[in-house]
């Protein structure tokens, strides 16, 4: 039954006339595909690296901004404390000058008091007889003595006032000295913090600068790889065109696989529940995986067929046919042309398959051939 079906297909198939190509075109195509895969991988890796660099750079810039804000605030605090220190030291100097002046005045008044005391002592030492002999008026002497006592009392009061003011000044000076010492301590602590922040700022600026260099370097690499990618894609397009035009008979062992997956059955192996040998290979794959044409040609069948499920058959000319069975869906219509590597279907398990995958056959003049001898080794 299958033999009659394939004989009918061979009779109905239309040969495709395509230009020839050199024997090494397919090899060059595979090399170009490998190079393009490497370039694409490198581009993706660099893009991931750039994302990481940009993320680190953004985080470093945020940290740098915080550091600079802290440096500004610390500098403002330093300026404020420095102003307070200058004011405190000026006040201390003023207090010291006042103390010196008060001490001078106190010493001067103490001298006056001593002089008054000597005068009173001498006056009290004169006898009444001496005053009479000298014809001195006792009342006048008494008034003079009272005057001296008054002056002495006033001077003593002023001296005590000096002592009180000196004590107050000493207390103020002590408090001011402590305050200045505290300000100096705070200033030194802030200065150390400022120096530490400035050092962190320099280190962060260095990191940001290096990240910017890395970003520029990776961008240059990306641009270079993008040019390589573009060139390789253009070359691959030309090679695909050349390979599609190369006679299929010259591509034995060089055709791409229609699907990535593990082999469940090989050519001429018996089925598990059948005594018939497989006339193709069965490739296991997840449902919906891309099924690609192994060579350019024309779709001559795209429909459901008993035992094959959704089936696509491509005529490659010169009596070469390939069959793609058990698909989930077929993306090409009958009569449409396909290129080598173009997606023509999605893998599935239609037609009674227990495991999703692709059944693939290759025939020449209606006779099945081992697909593994045509597909590139892997």
TrEMBL record:
Q: Does the keyword Hydrolase apply?
A: yes
Q: Which GO terms describe its molecular function?
A: metalloendopeptidase activity
Q: Which CDD domains match?
A: M23_peptidase
Q: In this entry, which stretches build a coiled coil? A: 64-98, 208-242
What UniProt keywords are attached to this protein's entry? Coiled coil, Hydrolase
Q: Tell me, what's a Pfam family for it? A: Peptidase_M23
Q: Which residues form the M23ase beta-sheet core domain?
A: 277-371
Q: Which PANTHER family match?
A: MUREIN HYDROLASE ACTIVATOR ENVC (PTHR21666:SF270), PEPTIDASE-RELATED (PTHR21666)
Q: What is this protein called?
A: Murein hydrolase activator EnvC
Annotated source species: invertebrate metagenome
């Amino acid at each position: 039954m299958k033999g009659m079906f394939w004989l009918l297909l061979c009779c109905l198939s239309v040969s495709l006339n395509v230009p020839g190509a050199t024997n090494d075109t397919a090899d060059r195509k595979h090399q170009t595909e490998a190079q393009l895969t490497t370039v694409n991988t490198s581009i993706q890796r660099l893009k991931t690296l750039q994302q990481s660099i940009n993320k680190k750079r953004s985080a470093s810039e945020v940290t740098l901004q915080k550091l600079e804000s802290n440096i500004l605030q610390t500098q403002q605090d330093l300026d404020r404390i420095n102003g307070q220190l200058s004011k405190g030291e000026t006040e201390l100097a003023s207090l010291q000058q006042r103390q010196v002046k008060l001490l001078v005045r106190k010493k001067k008044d103490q001298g006056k008091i001593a002089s008054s005391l000597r005068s009173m002592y001498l006056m009290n030492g004169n006898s009444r007889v001496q005053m009479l002999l000298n014809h001195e008026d006792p009342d006048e002497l008494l008034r003079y003595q009272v005057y001296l006592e008054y002056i002495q009392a006033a001077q003593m009061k002023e001296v005590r006032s000096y002592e009180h003011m000196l004590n107050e000044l000493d207390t103020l000076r002590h408090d001011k000295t402590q305050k200045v010492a505290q300000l100096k301590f705070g200033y030194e602590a802030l200065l150390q913090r400022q120096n530490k922040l400035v050092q962190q700022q320099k280190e962060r600026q260095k990191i940001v600068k290096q990240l910017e260099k890395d970003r520029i370097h990776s961008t240059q690499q990306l641009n270079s790889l993008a040019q390589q990618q573009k060139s390789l894609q253009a070359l691959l397009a030309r090679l695909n065109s050349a390979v599609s035009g190369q006679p299929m008979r010259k591509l034995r062992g060089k055709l791409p696989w229609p699907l990535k997956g593990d082999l469940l059955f090989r050519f001429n192996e018996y089925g598990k529940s059948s005594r018939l040998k497989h006339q193709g290979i069965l490739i296991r794959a997840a449902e919906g995986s891309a099924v690609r044409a192994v060579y350019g040609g024309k779709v001559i069948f795209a429909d459901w067929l008993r035992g094959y499920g959704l089936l696509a058959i491509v005529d490659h000319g010169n009596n070469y046919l390939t069959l793609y069975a058990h698909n989930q869906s077929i993306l090409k219509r009958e009569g449409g042309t396909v290129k080598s590597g173009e997606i023509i279907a999605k893998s599935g398990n239609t037609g009674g398959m227990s495991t999703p995958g692709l059944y693939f056959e290759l025939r020449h003049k209606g006779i099945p051939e081992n697909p593994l001898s045509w597909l590139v080794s892997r």
